[in-house]
Structures are given as C-alpha cells and as structure tokens.
Amino acid sequence: MAMRSAINAIFSTTACLALGSPAGLFAQVADPAAGFPSRPIRVVVPFTPGGQPDIVVRLIGPKVTESLQQQIVVDNRPGAGGMIGARIVVASNPDGYTLLSVSAAHVVTPAVRANLGYDTVKDFAGITMTANAAYFLVVPTSLEVRTVKDLIALARARPGQLNFTSAGTGSGTHFGAEMFKHSAGIDVVHVPHRGIPEALTDTIAGRTHFFMAPFGSTVGLIRDGKLRALAVSTPQRTRTHPDIPTIAESGLPGFRYDSWAALFAPAKTPRAVVNKLNREVARVLKLPDIEQRLLAIGIEPAPTTPAQLDKFVAEQVVAAADLARKAGIKPE
C-alpha cells in the first residue's frame, strides 16, 4: 500500500510539473518552437557568394541573429546548378537548424537535370520568399532597336539570324529569354555562356543581340551607356528605374519572369518552427533600413506566408517544365 502511494505521488508530481510549468515536458511537446533556437542556424546557399540568395541572407542575418539570440551562419555550397546545396538540406534533421536560401533556379533545375535526389515540391517546406528583382531585357547599343516592339519586328524580319545569350543552359537568364522568345513568337538562336560576365561581354560587343540580364550585374552598364535596356521582366516597373517599361506593357501582355530568392526548410520541420522563422524573417525584411539597403541594389523585399511560397513553387515547377518542353530542353 505504501509502495502504491509512493508511485501515485511520483506520477502526480510529474503531471503537475508538466502541466503547471511553461518549461515543462508537456509544453515542450505541445510547442516545438518554445525553445527554438537554442544553437546557431545554418543557412546553406547552393551558389557562390555574391548572388541574390547570398546577399539577402547576409544582409538580414545580423538582425535575425539579434532577435532570435542565435547566430545565422551562411554556408556556401555551390555546384550542379544548386543541387549539391539542396541535397545537404534535404538530408539534414528537419528541426529548423539547417535551411536553404535559393533562387528561381530551384524550380528550373527539375526541368533540366535528371536524378536530382530530391523532390523540389515535396521535400522542402517554404518559410518565406525573401526578395524579388527584375531582369533587364538588354541589347547592345550598336543594335538599331529602341523598344521591345522594335526587337520583335527585327527578329521576325530576320528569322534564325538573331541570337540571345545566357549564363548557361537552364539558368534564370536562359529561361527568361526562352519565355520572351515563345511569347513573342520569334525564331532566335540560344548562345549559352559560362556565366553572367561572359554573357554581358558578348552583348556589349554586339556578338549577341539580346540578353535577359540580372539587375545587379547590369545597372551600371546601362547607366554608363554600354548597354541599352528595353524593358524589365516584372509585372510592374521597378521602384529604382520607373522610366523603363515592362515587357508586358511593351506588346506582350501578361509577361512575367521574376528573379526571386526564398528560404526553405526540410519538409518535416515542425510547422511551429517554420512559422516562427517566417515571422522573424518577414519582420526583418520590413525594417526601413533593410528595405533601403536592398532597394539600393535593385532588390525588393518580398515576404510571403509559408503556404503562399509552397503554392508558388508548385506552380513554377510546372511552368518551368512546360517552358523546357516548348524549348526542346530535356533533363540531362
């Protein structure tokens, strides 16, 4: 009898502690985010430093570190079009301590690469989109075109004779130009390069006729008169260059191709942890000083809910596959 009373007392005391204390076992099980984070958070960027996914995380990292009281560590793991970094995150524990900061290449890769080793839609949980930027449709100043309609007219007058460049097959610069090509119904030739600098060099020299170029790499060349910007790829004109029209208003209604960056966790990360990360990152992105620093380099803060990002990714994977099919691009 005494033994039974002692056992009952132990269970009663344990239950009271769990129910009565916010730090108790019950509270921890009920809210996985209660003690999160308790150690540094690693953000894998599957590209070399200097790209949009890298810049944004490094900019917001100190502010997020301050609010969560744990350091944000950026880990650049470039290679295989972003697949190496993505695989690292998919293989990590789904606890919120290993995240992925990636660009639009995340949804293009399944259309151009076979055997990814992961499912872009099912194996990641969206946290938030972090940034959005325009591509500039640029031409060499030696090309006698001033508008998008001029470029389309020239291409139609000379089928198969004009070309466009990119930073490589399957890159955002490639798919943006392919979308333009098919939207305009023109016959032009793709000339892929190893990267953005090489593509810009050939466009400036007039060896290639147009390039769907990233804002940050191009704005100085446009300002210095080395390239001519015909339009931007976003649905609205940019806040930094409102004088440059959109492709959509220049004869191709509905055209949209954004350069975006977003933050993901492994798919089985607790929703409470995902939501906590979403709130903190979104809050930092809306800070006036962060917004001003991003806008200064042509990037607009673009926080979303996790559900909005997941829906967007699913739609964009389908759209990229459809565009690859139209362009005759097969996964390798």
Characterize the structure shown.
- By secondary structure, this protein is α/β, with parallel strands linked by helices.
- The chain has two domains: 41-133 and 259-327, Bordetella uptake gene, domain 1 (D-Maltodextrin-Binding Protein, domain 2, 3-Layer(aba) Sandwich); 135-250, Periplasmic binding protein-like II (D-Maltodextrin-Binding Protein, domain 2).
- The chain has helices spanning 2-20, 25-30, 52-68, 83-90, 105-112, 148-157, 172-184, 196-205, 215-223, 271-285, 288-295, 306-327; strands spanning 41-45, 72-76, 98-103, 124-133, 135-140, 163-166, 189-192, 210-214, 227-232, 259-266, 300-301.
- The radius of gyration is 24 Å and the shape is globular.
- Mean pLDDT is 89; it is low at 1-28.
Q: What is the helical fraction, as a range of percent? A: 40-55%
Tell me the span between the first and last alpha carbons. Answer: 73 Å
Order of strands, main sheet, comes to 2-1-3-10-4-11
In the CATH scheme, the class of the largest domain would be Alpha Beta
Low-pLDDT regions: 1-28
Shape: globular
Proportion of residues in extended strands: 15-25%
Give the mean pLDDT: 89
- Give the CATH superfamily of the largest domain: Bordetella uptake gene, domain 1
Tally of separate helices? 12
CATH architecture annotation of the largest domain: 3-Layer(aba) Sandwich
Profile the largest sheet: 6 strands, mixed
Number of strands: 11
Looking at the structure, the CATH topology of the largest domain is D-Maltodextrin-Binding Protein, domain 2
Structural class: alpha/beta
When the domains are counted, the total is 2
Radius of gyration: 24 Å
Query: Which series of helices and strands comes N to C?
Result: HHEHEHEHEEHEHEHEHEEHHEH
